[in-house]
Design a protein that fits this description.
Helix content is about 55%, strand content about 5%. With about 260 residues, it is mostly helical. Bound molecules: zinc ion.
């Protein structure tokens, strides 16, 4: 039997769950970053020379980052899906959702890890050149590398990617429910710390149907948050009341 409208209303992720997820991912990423920073300082030598760093170093760094992101983001997505399934009387097949989470996290994390490694490689080039020209000690160089390889960077990645994984979990649920004939919309909720953000605030409470982008009050469109690093907006899904006409549908769609 079809559940009544309202029973499928998504709720924002409680702050304590959200912070715990971010902290766990940040801690795992910090371990990887610190290990690679130590290895990098050793490889660069003194005076530092980027030519001493083999290309495999960046491949290894991307691979380890990817391993952490894949495991943790899959876990985040499944946690969010489970929370949703618990709240809702109508739920897609659990195995389908597990498949969606696996596929998305593997595709996405490979790309993001490679991007992180490429950016770090470029930034390290600048730091090393500067260290050589200004005659920095090895300790000074290590300190400067910590800005890129360490807790601050790990935390930024953890917050941003947790936001992305949560929004993707909602999107996967919306798609699966759509296959079951349940019409839903995604709703964009700005986080406590995003209420004053000029980029995110215009999206607060915007809604989107399957495959559609959100449209902000300023006319901007986006498929999902995050819109910027450290973005903490959320996406929840809600059932569309049966009497509501689909956006842009001809009148005959009413029946
Ligand atoms: Zn924002």
């Amino acid at each position: 039997m079809r559940p009544a409208f309202g029973t499928l209303t998504g709720k924002a992720i409680p702050d304590e769950i959200r912070s715990k997820t971010e902290r766990r991912l940040a801690a795992e990423l910090t371990k990887v970053e610190e290990k690679f920073k130590r290895r990098l300082v050793r490889l660069l030598g003194h005076p530092p020379d980027e030519g001493n760093v083999p290309i495999e170093f960046w491949g290894d760094y991307a691979r380890e980052t990817n391993r952490v992101l894949t495991t943790e983001l899959q876990d985040t997505m499944l946690g969010e899906m489970e929370r949703y399934v618990d709240l809702s009387p109508v739920a897609p097949d659990w195995d389908d959702l597990v498949g969606d989470a696996n596929r998305w996290s593997m595709d996405h994390t490979t790309r993001i890890s490679q991007g992180i490694a490429d950016n770090s490689n470029r930034i390290v080039g600048d730091i090393v050149r500067d260290a050589r020209e200004s005659g920095q000690s090895q300790a000074e160089l290590a300190k400067r590398l910590s800005w890129r390889f360490g807790r601050a960077h790990a935390e930024m990645v953890a917050i941003t990617e947790t936001t992305r994984a949560d929004a993707e979990a909602a999107t996967a649920l919306q798609n699966r429910l759509g296959e079951m004939g349940v019409r839903t919309r995604r709703r964009w909720l700005t986080g406590e710390d995003e209420r004053v953000c000029p980029i995110c605030f215009p999206f607060d409470h915007a809604t989107a149907e399957i495959g559609q982008p959100f449209t902000a009050t300023n006319g901007q469109q986006a498929m999902n948050p995050p819109l910027h690093p450290r973005g903490r907006c959320q996406v929840v899904i809600e059932e569309i009341p049966p009497e509501e006409v689909p956006t842009g549908a001809p009148p005959e769609a009413l029946q």
